[in-house]
Amino acid sequence: YIPAVCAALRLYTDADTPDGLSLLDNWGLIHVLFHHSPVVVAMHNGWALAPGESLAGLEPEPMFRKLWLRNPEPIFDLLVNAKARPVSVWALQMLRRHFPERLSRLTLDELLAWVVSPNAVLNELALEVLETRGGLESFSVEQWLALVDGARAELLDRICGMVARNVKPEQVAFADAVKLAMQRPVPLARLGFTFLKGKKPQSPDEVTALFGLRNAEAEPLRAEMVRWATQVLSSLPAFDPLWALEFLDSRFEEVREIGWEWLQTEVRARDSVVVWQRLLESPYDNIRLRLIAMLEDRAQERGGLAAFSPERVRFLWATVLLNVSRGSRAKPFVVRQIIDRLTANPDEAGDLLPIVAVALRSVRGPEFRAGLAGIAGFVAVSYTHLRAHETK
Prior knowledge:
By secondary structure, the chain is an all-alpha fold. 64% of the residues lie in helices and 2% in strands. It contains 24 helices and 2 strands. It has a two-stranded antiparallel ribbon with strand order 1-2. The relative contact order is 0.04.
């Protein structure tokens, strides 16, 4: 009887029992698993709930109960291989009640496999045993990483909590910690960040791996992780100013914001001419517009703009001014900068005057009048120089 009925029970699927009513409609299933349960009663046309009872109180009371109690292995096989949740739940309840020692013999390999199983009953049992048994410190880091990589999303909080309690940060390689921190599920990213907080990159490859945080997929943690990365990078003896560009060129606006903040506070990057020259080619408005304001400040310093090639500075001015529809507040600064450069470098008039023409069409009021006055002053100075040259 047992082998034959187990073969039949393994044929049921969740599609056969999508709800409680469907479960009661499966006459054979109820007959095999719950025949003697006081919660259900046999009617001439099928099974029904006893008066005052609910399916929540349904517990294993199988037909031919004594046969089932001879050996736990057929029940254990149903727990592992049944495709219908009611059958798996029934098997687990039978084992807990009558064969608890069989569950105590579960191996770590079995539990790990069950955590990533599509069977939710096995998932819950495995996590329950792993959380209460102890000895998890014997798990290798590779086993933990495989566990979190393959588990269902709704289990990640519990699994990551276990990993955090049982794995020390020094056991996790830097690259593995970054890999976890870059994952989309927030529990995984938080776990990786927990491991990273106690580390510093020790090689160029690890520094490169750290830049990966600018593309971290867990949006709620991305900014926090990037800000931490900038602090770590600033503390490294072999600091490279060009590292700031890794965050200023990010596709995520919040990462660029943190990169900009870092540029203001990290003197080695802020004073690097190479960094500024690279930033002049930034494709992002929020970087280019701020550069205009900072160039305004730098222009007040001795040789401020002279450190940058004329082509790059003109490129920046042109890209900002051509973005007329944005109504940028940076345009008045640009107009003044162009006029100042034109006055100081009249030989650049062929390149700068077309930009001035766009500037004067895109500003209003005092800025427009100031621009015209600047052009007039430039023409006057140029005429004076020309007359002086002709006189000589």
